[in-house]
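Sorry to interrupt, but I need a hand with the structure work. Leave the record below and I will have a look:
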Amino acid sequence: MTSDGDAGALAVDYAPVREALAARDATAFVHAGSSDDPVLRYLARASDVDGELAVCVTPEQSMLFAPDDPDAARESFPGDRVLPGGGDVPTGERVAVALDDLGRSGTVLAPRTVPHDAALYLEDRGFEVASTAVVDDARVAKTDRERLRQRSVQAAADAAVARARTVLRESEREHGDGHGHGHGGDGAAVEGGESDHDPQDDHLAFEGMAVTTERLRREVAAELAAGGVDPGVVAVGAGADATPGSDAAIRPGEPVVLAIAPRDRDGYHGRVVRTLIVEGDGGWTRRAQLAADGAVDAALAELEPGATVAAVEREGVAELTAYGFDAPESVFDAHGVGLDRREPPLAEDAEIPEGAVLALDATASGPDGVVRVADLAVVTVDGAERLGTADRSLEP
C-alpha cells in the first residue's frame, strides 16, 4: 500500500510519470488548466492557489507554473521549481517556451483533458503531443495521507446525515401544501361538520416552518460547513431520487433520499447516501432497505486487491435481485472517489488495487419512489473497510 506518513503535507510520487516518459521515449509530461482540475490538484498540491496552472515533468525535474504569486505555491508544491504563470502570456505558451529553452524536443505526454490551446502551443514549438492516462492510474491507490483526508471528510458527511435525522425526527405532521409557514389547521369544515382534510396532503414542519427538500439541503450544507469542509454536492429528494435543485414539501410516509459528496480544502471527496422515512409503515420500503443495505454489504465483502469493478457490482446486483428489485429500475454502481466525485477505477474489467477508495451505491426502485444506500470503502490487504459510520436505518 502506498504510504507517505501519517500527517503533514501531501506528497506526489512523480516516478510513474517518468517511467511513462521512458517507456514511450517522450521528453516531458505536461498538463494545464484551472486550479480545481483534479489532475493538477494531484500533481501541484496547490490548494491555496487560484487561476490557471500548469505542471511539467521531465526526466530531470518537475515544474509548476502558477499565477500571480509563485511564492504561495512553493509552500505546498512537492516538485523542484515554481515559475510564473498566467498574465499576458498564456500558461500553456509559457510551458512550451520553457521546454524549448531547456533544449527539449520530441514527444510530450499529456492527459486527454489537456486544453486544446495548450496542446497547440506545444505543437507550434515542434513538439508532438500524445495522450496518457498515467496520472489517472497513479491516483487510484490512495496514500495514507490521502485516505486520512477522506476519512475526515466522511466524518463530516456522517455528522451532516445525523443533522438531517434530527430535523426529520423532531418534525411534526401538519396540514397544508408544505410551502407556507407550517401552521396548518385541522382542515376546513364542510357541510355536516365533517373535515375535508386529506392526510395525504399533510407535510412535515420543523421549528414552525415547513420542511422542504431545499430546507433540508440547507441544513445539511450548513452542518458540512460547520465541520470545516466544502459542502460540494448536496442533493435531496422526497418521494423520488435525490436532486440538487428540488424544493418539494416533505410528507410523512414518503422516502427522503439524501445524497452527499463534500470535499476538503485539498479537494478530496467523501460520499454517503441515505434514505429516511418519517412515520413509515414498512411495506415495500422496508424490503427495499434490506435489499440496498445487503447489496452494499455484499459488494463490500467482494472487495479485495485484484477484484474487478464488474465482480463487485455483480454481487450488489445479485442481492438487489434476490429481494425482487430488478434492473433497469434498480441498479448497483461501484466507482472510485478521490479528487473527483467519480474517478477510476470505473471500467468493468478494471482491477482494483490495495489503497483504492470506492463508493458502493445501491438503488432499489419501488412504486412510490426509491430507497438508496451508499458508503465509501477502502481496499486493504485483507479485503475492504467501510469509511464512515452513518446509521442506515430508515427511521430518523
